[in-house]
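Task card 7
Instruction: Convert sequence to structure tokens.
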Amino acid sequence: MLKRTLADRSVRTKILSITVLMALLAGVIAVLAVTRLSAVYSATEDIVNGNLKPLEVLAGIQAGVQKARVDIRELALADAAGKAETAKTIQADDQALDADVAAYLPGAADPAAVRSFQSLWQQWRQQRDEKLVPLAKADKDAEFYQAAKPVALYANQALEQLDKATKAELAEADRSIKEANSTFSAGRNLIIIIALAGLLLGLLCSEYISRQVVGPLQHLRKVLGRVAEGDLSVRADVNGKDELAVIGGATNDTVEKLYEVVTSVKGATGQLSSAAGQVSAAAQSLSQTAAEQAASVEETTAGIEQMASSVNQNSDNAKITDGIAGKAAQQAGEGGQAVQQTVQAMKDIAAKIAIIDDIAFQTNML
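Output:
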């Protein structure tokens, strides 16, 4: 049913549908690419904001711890004026360190380690304020360095807790990096899969166009080629109602009409051939008759030549006769005068005879 429905669609509709389908697929790929890139960006941002910045804060806290330990030594080494300034610096550094720890603690990867650090560091401060600061201000260097050794244990333990917190942050960063890589890989694989699906769909669409458009055109070309070679029995396959089907139907109608015309011409050619045979026979008969007539004409010509010869001879005889006739006419003229004279003489004789008869009649009566 679907195949039939697609076959009935116009070529323009088919190509437009495929174009729209490919555009939608490209849109899906673009949306997925943007979505995956956004996810990768979010993961990267989480790494930066959720891991690198906490590590930076931890590094600052560790630096603050080292600075506090240096400050107490500077306090011991400073003069009276320097001691007052160093005391202010120690107080400011303590406040800054407390602020950094308070800001870091809510998002810490290992809050327990941070709290342990706070506890140990608070003990170090207490020991510093109670033991080291008074000795430093009193310039009791020997006693100061002697008391600093046990107090340093609290600082070292506090730094160990910071190291523990740093390791937790690094582990969290590693997890975030793995998640980012996983997100990137999943997005990349999904885009590749969809791209391959799009490629496959493109190939299928190309094959569909080839079957629905190029194939029928090649079939029509073959049909027309066979018609050009004189094969009028071939017909185009007509499937569907699109433009190619209409062209195929028109081609079949044209070939059918051409077949009828050729059949009619063949019939007329047969009749013409029969008439030509009759004309040939008549021509042969006419040729034979003409040959006979030619023979007769030759005989007639020979007779005419003989007649011409006789006519010439008669002409000569006529000339001779004409001469004789002329003489005869002259003689006849002369004879006519003689006859006239004879007639006159006969008339005279007849008159005389009449007179004699009258005399004889009168004599008889007597």
